[in-house]
């Protein structure tokens, strides 16, 4: 039964991904929506399980591993200054804006501060998926986005570690840094002779099985039960998530001397929160920093920003 549901998730995710492409959107959008449709958000057929979680973790690992193998580290080094400025401003704006908005909305100080940490992260995997789809991964723009996203997540992981240790009494697990570990490993494997073969094999495995489960599983996390009276806050948080990351990254890109068109594309590439924000949210729950009621609002806002981001990215990437 479980295997059948996983197969259903894979098939529906692949189909909706292709439909998204036909509609001129990123494949990731359809893949995320498949989880929402099949999960508690709509049909309530497929639910997150330990096996789906495990497959998703493998999917993250393969996606990040391949991204590392396809990334030009020399190109990334060339743009480290721009990436650093973009990353810092892309983190600072959400970290300042979210606590203020949350506090004014009546949330506790701890929850408000933690919201800033959650929404400061960037989903490397989803952004990289769109970059690869648009064949921009090896470009200077792709290198800048990649470097900035990695720096973003390092800052966010440091922040959540401090929160977890000093406020929640928890620690940072290996799952939390798995995407970064896989990416670094991919960069190292790029140097070995068999890297091309490894990349092709893992890409096919990811494309037809692991990636659909990973992206679909994000959608499975969405549940609309009990959120009816929180629609306005969720919309507010979702809009804030997009605006703060886009604005911070755009300003950083412009301050780095990049032109308006490239700055727009880079800013769009930094908007998605995806798996990293979800991981940080789960750390917050495990460390008793936030409760599950608040986490539901976080997850919905994360999902919305994750769906909006590829829609923004595709046209802006194509213009650069």
UniProtKB/TrEMBL annotation:
Domain named Cation/H+ exchanger transmembrane: residues: 12-188
GO molecular function: antiporter activity
GO biological process, alphabetically ordered: proton transmembrane transport; sodium ion transport
Organism superkingdom: Bacteria
Topology in membrane: Multi-pass membrane protein
Pfam families, alphabetized: Na_H_Exchanger
Intracellular or extracellular location(s): Membrane
One GO CC annotation: membrane
InterPro entries in UniProt: Cation/H_exchanger_TM, Na+/solute_symporter_sf
Primary subcellular site in the record, as a coarse category: membrane
Chain segments annotated as transmembrane: 36-65, 85-107, 113-132, 144-166, 172-189, 209-228, 234-253, 298-317
Keyword Zinc-finger: no
Record keywords, A-Z: Antiport, Ion transport, Membrane, Sodium, Sodium transport, Transmembrane, Transmembrane helix, Transport
Family: Belongs to the monovalent cation:proton antiporter 2 (CPA2) transporter (TC 2.A.37) family.
Protein name: Cation/H+ exchanger transmembrane domain-containing protein
UniProt source species: Leuconostoc fallax
Origin organism lineage: Bacteria, Bacillati, Bacillota, Bacilli, Lactobacillales
